[in-house]
Each structure stands twice: as structure tokens, then as C-alpha cells.
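Shipment paperwork, digital attachment
Item: protein structure file
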Amino acid sequence: ADEAAVNQARSILAFLHYDARQFSDAAALGSLLVTDHPNSPASRQAARVALASLQALAAGTDAPALDAKRQLKKLAALVVTRWNDGPEAADATSLLINIALEAHDGDGLVAVIDGMNPAIQRRPELLLRAAVGLRQEAEAVRKAGGDPGRVAGWNTTVKRAIDEALATTEAAGSLPVGPANAKLAVSAALTRAQMAQAEGNPSLALLL
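Attachment content:
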């Protein structure tokens, strides 16, 4: 049989499993296409189905949910590697940010920011989400008496990410699409202004 046709059928079947809430079967079939047939046109859609299925399976705190969360993180990282400038990579990066935020994993957020393809879709939005979350983690560690060097390194990443994203947003002449993203941009600008003020740089704070 023609391999492209077979993979297209697999992708459709994965979606049908997902639509029927058979998330385990949908995740397994979609992950197979991503892992073994990355060059197939059908694999990109299958990747999104697999990620959505694993996300559904990861809801909860029991052992199967935790296992699904590990699989979700692994597959999301693979999708970013496979197609690092397409919508699939943006979706997968968003999931990686969510996973790191939920785990209070500051180093994970740094890894997402540092590893983000410059050409990825929705880059400003993704940078702002990761940076605002990382700033919250940095403040939590600082207040708990954690390693000052680690906190400083995280804050350096926060400033770099917010500065780039806000500059890109300003150049575009509009806030990111959607009320949630507009609110995120305002929150990030306020965060950056507060950091500048704390560092004794009120002129930068006023500019922001």
C-alpha cells in the first residue's frame, strides 16, 4: 500500500479515537506517526491529536495521569525538534511552558526560552508567558532564601525575554491577539518596570 495513504488513514483514525474520547488509542497512534514517520504530511496533524490526547490523560494526580504527563512532555519536546517553526511547535512549546509552570520548574522555563526557535509562530506570546512565570518562580525562591546566583540568572533570562517580546510587539504596532494575550503583555510590561525600579533604573521603568 502507498505509505502516504496509510499514514493519512492512521492520522484520520487517531482523530476518530480522540473524537470518541479514546485518548490512549489516539495518543499511541499519533505518537507513532510523529516518531516513525516525521516526514509524512499526515504526521503534523497527528502530532496535535496526540498532544491533545495526552493532555486529557494527564489530568489528575494518579499514576496513569503522571505517566501521561511524562509522555506529554517527551512528545512535546520531540514535536518542537521535528517542526520547530510550525504551528505544531508553538502548541507543543505552550504545553512545555504549562508543564514547567505546574511543576514550579524555573530551570525548565529557562530551557524553553533559550531553546525557542527565533522563527517559531507566536514567539512574543510564548516568551511573555514563560518569562512572567519564571519571574514568579524567581521571587518565590528568593523569598524562601534560595540560591541568589540562581535567582539572578533566572531574572536575567526574564529581562531578556520580556525586552525582546515587548520590542517585537511595539514594532508590530499592536498587542498580541486576544484579551488574554493583551493582558499578558500588560502584565509583562509591569513586571519589567518593577524589576527596573528595584534595580535602581527608574528611567527604564518609566519608558516601559
